[in-house]
Amino acid sequence: MIHQLKFGLLLLATTLSTQVFGQNKSEKYLKPELVGTWEFSILKDHEGHKIDTIITSMGKELVGNPIRMYRSDGTYAIKFTPQNTDNGQWYFDNKNQSIIQLFYYSKPYSTTANYLISLGHAKKDENGDYYEIITTKVIELTENNLTILEREGRQRTFIRKQN
């Protein structure tokens, strides 16, 4: 009887510690606080100054957009323009406080997608579809604000859109 009680307590403790101390490494965790639609608010440089324009080798890029939508079914959409939307699957890496996005290339594959596939930059899933893994570090997540880290230490903040 005591042996069965000890075994039961050990089983209960193991179950609770798995739930309390985090996710299983192979588990894809969907952080409920991220689910929803997020609209761009502000972009700041690594020193905290507001940025209105980013200058790249391709020219000037006006700051704004995209709208981020993280759904509870594990899919996402990042809408840059009405004609340019990235779609795929997402999950949250609790250890690194990052959103992991599996960005699926649209068929028929564009010249750029074919080039990235040929370089081995894209991965192939079990259905033969190609995707890219995009990791986005989360700096801050509150009920109404999401701030992510970008290249060169820039921080992009989004505000939750009320549905």
Characterise this structure.
- The protein is an alpha+beta fold.
- It has a single domain (25-160), classed as Lipocalin, CATH 2.40.128.
- Helix content is 17%, strand content 43%.
- The chain contains two helices and eleven strands, in the order αβββββββαββββ.
- It has helices at 2-20, 111-118; strands at 36-44, 53-56, 59-62, 67-70, 75-81, 84-93, 98-104, 123-124, 130-141, 145-149, 155-160.
- An eight-stranded antiparallel barrel has the order 1-4-5-6-7-9-10-11. It has a two-stranded antiparallel sheet with strand order 2-3.
In brief, what are we looking at here?
The chain is an alpha+beta fold.
List keywords for this structure.
two-stranded antiparallel ribbon; 163 residues; 2 helices; single chain; disordered N terminus
